[in-house]
Amino acid sequence: MSRIGRKPIEIPDGVKIKMTEDLLEVEGKKGKLSWNIPDSIQAAIEDKKVIISRSSDIKKVKALHGLTRALVSNMVTGVSEGFTRTLEIVGVGYRAEPSGKNGIKFNLGYSNPVEFELPDGVSAQVEERGTRVILEGIDKRLVGEMAARIRKIRPPDAYKGKGVRYQGEKLKLKPGKDGAKAQ
Questions:
Q1: In this structure, are 96 and 143 located in the same domain?
Q2: pLDDT digits (tens, 9 = 90+) for 78-113
């Protein structure tokens, strides 16, 4: 069996899991998420744990086994604790500011500011004079996708590192023309 798929998922206090035929709904203090379980995968609740099992040892079913367990685990974590992703904006004059109800306006060196609308389920905070954006939500996939789309507006350049990057992201900067002569 899959090492990931066979590991049971602990259900924390305050989280309710409801299963119908192929729909799994997880509800907690932060919100509610649901997901359709594939036909070849079964889920059962035993002793405050969710156990995911599969019907056969076909390669595709094995892959779905681990995937299903990981997605259900992320759903449980999301509705109980939530997920955050932090982006840092590096560069002279580069900044972000809240715009409207659920949007962010970025000044990233383009001729006009870039407006970015966030979907329902993801919220943003702009900190440190507009150089740090914190995305929060209960759906890990959605939070990560929005962070990637924001980073794609102005990815860090290879020479000075200016642009939008994930917090803690290590960049290997190229030396440039003068750096090659110094060696």
A1: yes
A2: 999 999 999 999 999 999 999 988 899 999 999 999
Query: 147: which 2 tokens?
Result: 């962070």
Domain boundary among 80, 95, 118: 80
**What are the distances in angstroms from CA 118 to CA 78, 143, 155?**
18, 10, 19
Alpha helices (runs of H) in 4-157, residue ranges in sequence order: 59-80, 140-153
Q: What is the DSSP letter of 151?
A: H
H helices, E strands: number in the chain? 3, 13
| Residue with the two structure tokens 């110094």 | 182
- Which sign does the torsion angle of CA 132, 87, 105, 144 carry? negative
My answer on whether 111 and 141 are in the same domain is yes
Model-level pTM greater than 0.85?
Answer: yes
